[in-house]
Design brief:
This protein is of the alpha/beta class. The chain is 36% helix and 18% strand. The longest helix has 25 residues. The mean pLDDT is 96.
Length: 400
């Protein structure tokens, strides 16, 4: 038996008037997911423990079977694992987003966050911009590391774990009240804007009608994590397919294989089919019996507030990831159990995460069922099946 999780990040949503009262998942054309639902099981699951922030860090740990209340030490340290940063116990890691701030306000504190991802800037352009920041701001105490796209890293030696605001939570708002209380972090963010606002790459981006990556934004502080081995925990040797450093970091911490896919960038036009093929290929290897395929695009489109693009991302997921994995495993003659679900909702109406229950779809090729379900939030809730703790989902998948 092979086991697959396909995680559509932020895929769940709320009913939208422009979609006739349907959610993007309910509105999207998803024939493969609906086919699996009709032959499988749907329900809801609570992925975010009470009292914890609704983020992809806590939620994906939960889906992989790691109780965030026990294992979570901050988002950025998980990304540090992916980048290969050797954190000391006293180090603090912070996410360093390259964001788009409004430029017309004179005072830095009056500027607003237009885009938490700087228009899904390429890693190549972001690396050049971060190098300009490093050249002026890096010291023995503060070191910058390049990640993927807009997502980068700051290591603060002998630092403090501070409460810091997530940029996608304050879109369109004046940033003053959300800046770090720590004077040095605040000073570096302000100086990063001065360094980047007229950088040639950003001048060119504005000429092309793209959002400039004109400031660093620090958040997600934490200390070095310690995860137990996924294989020891579940008995399965697993692999991770994702473009996002957070997920690759979780995999590294759990001693899972990280599969890199060319053209996978975490955006709307990521290499979906490449991810699907990578999943099929790794499961064809005798020693691997579990793969986790993470797709970031629905979450990014939710943060952007784009109904059309979120629907498109969900349709791409169905057509170019789930269907090819199903077909590939069937052609290989493999029995498999597939779990499809989001980690958390990212409702378009608020452009950030919520802690609401999410719908899951579980299909077992060796024991197909016959029902009339389609996969969406409404029907999952109507099914009456509910899993209270997200960290129990993985055991339910593998029937442990």
């Amino acid at each position: 038996m092979k086991y697959v999780v396909v995680l559509g990040d932020g895929m769940a949503d709320l009913p939208l008037e422009e979609l006739g009262g349907m959610t993007p998942l309910e509105y999207a054309k998803t024939p493969c997911m609906d086919c699996l639902a009709a032959a499988g099981e749907i329900g809801t699951v609570h992925t975010i423990p009470d009292g914890m922030a609704p983020g992809s860090d806590t939620a994906n740990l939960s889906v992989l079977g790691y109780d965030p209340k026990q294992y979570y030490s901050g988002r950025s340290p998980l990304e540090a694992l992916s980048i290969g940063v050797d954190m000391k116990p006293e180090d603090v890691s912070l996410r360093c987003n390259l964001v788009t701030l409004t430029e017309e306000e004179e005072k830095f504190e009056d500027k607003k966050i237009l885009d938490h991802s700087s228009g899904e800037i390429s890693t190549e352009d972001a690396a050049v911009l971060l190098e300009a920041v490093k050249k002026e701001l890096e010291t023995d105490t503060y070191q910058f590391y390049v990640g993927t796209s807009y997502r980068h890293l700051l290591i603060w030696q002998q630092g403090q774990v501070l409460e810091l605001s997530q940029p996608h939570d304050v879109l369109g708002q004046a940033i003053g009240q959300y800046l770090p209380q720590d004077g040095m972090l605040r000073k570096m963010m302000k100086r990063s804007y001065e360094i980047l606002v007229n950088h040639p790459i950003n001048v060119k981006r504005k000429e092309q009608g793209l959002h400039p990556a004109n400031s660093c934004w620090f958040w997600g502080a934490g200390t070095r994590p310690s995860l137990s081995s996924f294989q020891e925990k579940t008995g399965l040797k697993g692999a991770m397919v994702s473009a996002v450093d957070l997920l690759k970091g979780i995999a590294a911490g759990a001693s899972m294989k990280v599969v890199l896919v060319e053209g996978a960038n975490g955006g709307l036009h990521t290499n979906y089919r490449g991810k699907a093929q990578a999943a099929v290929d790794v499961l064809a290897e005798e020693q691997y019996d579990f793969v986790y395929v993470h797709v970031e695009a629905p979450d990014e489109m939710g943060h952007q507030g784009s109904v059309e693009k979120k629907v498109q991302a969900i349709q791409f997921l169905d057509e170019q990831v789930i269907a090819p994995i199903k077909e590939g495993l069937e052609q290989a003659g493999e029995d498999f159990r597939m779990l499809v679900m989001p980690d958390h909702p990212t409702p378009i109406s608020i452009r950030t995460h919520t802690r609401d229950d999410v719908p899951y779809l579980l299909f077992d090729s060796s024991a197909p069922q016959k029902n009339t379900w389609k996969y969406n939030e409404r029907e999952a809730a109507e099914s009456g099946r509910h899993i209270l703790k997200g960290c129990e989902m993985i055991d339910y998948l593998i029937q442990k």
